[in-house]
């Protein structure tokens, strides 16, 4: 295989497994595309899918899948803990092998235009594909969520990059972009007090004066509170550093950390850094990981 692109589409359905199976089916049957993971979360009511493959095949599979999601997901009835504005909420393309960021931007543009023309879904381009500075940050694009999008689209500053300035009545709006790999990471607190989670999230995220490469919030899920985040540059903000900081902040409120989870795929390098820290290793690298040689 030559060029390889990764795509991590997020769908606003995490409870109905039959629907999810139909939505991800295009990734299973298309040649040159490999479905790496499909992770539904009933509390978030969201499914994160990770696929890799040749750019053409991945693009076509995403377009087909988004059409199925538009038929099966009714955003007017959607409820969940995660912010969302569309049935296919966000579609990021990530360069993996023999792919430049400029190629991922072109792929995002092509898929965004197809979602608008074939499925009637208005599309915003974000991150490296953004057409305006204020559209780089996904949180700003999604602000208002599905319920606030009709009014937002009436603002001349928020005309979609593709499609009409009207939400799809069931499928809402989709963000399509290009970015480097990130780590979607959640930390569990042994409390049901969402205000504590919000304070901790504010302390670690960049907009609150925390880590430069952290976007964080708090949600109630499974009877506890999670500090949920994206680590947008794991090479400059390590997983272990964020985990230890959350533990430290939680102690201020008499709260403990009970565990954490990675959503989707994670680069091996990001995990190796944490192994080095917690085991006190020195002179360690991925070359000492047996499986890296088995994959050669």
From TrEMBL:
Keywords: Cytoplasm, Folate-binding, Histidine metabolism, Transferase. One of its GO terms (molecular function) is glutamate formimidoyltransferase activity. The keyword Transferase applies. Pfam families: FTCD (PF02971), FTCD_N (PF07837). InterPro entries: Formiminotransferase_C (IPR013802), Formiminotransferase_C_sf (IPR037070), Formiminotransferase_cat (IPR004227), Formiminotransferase_N (IPR012886), Formiminotransferase_N_sf (IPR037064), FormiminoTrfase_cat_dom_sf (IPR022384), FTCD (IPR051623). It is found in: Cytoplasm. GO terms for cellular component: cytoplasm. Its EC number is 2.1.2.5. Transmembrane segments: none annotated. One of its GO terms (biological process) is L-histidine metabolic process. Pathway: Amino-acid degradation; L-histidine degradation into L-glutamate; L-glutamate from N-formimidoyl-L-glutamate (transferase route): step 1/1. It comes from the Bacteria. Residues 181-293 form the Formiminotransferase C-terminal subdomain domain. This is glutamate formimidoyltransferase. It comes from Propionigenium maris DSM 9537.
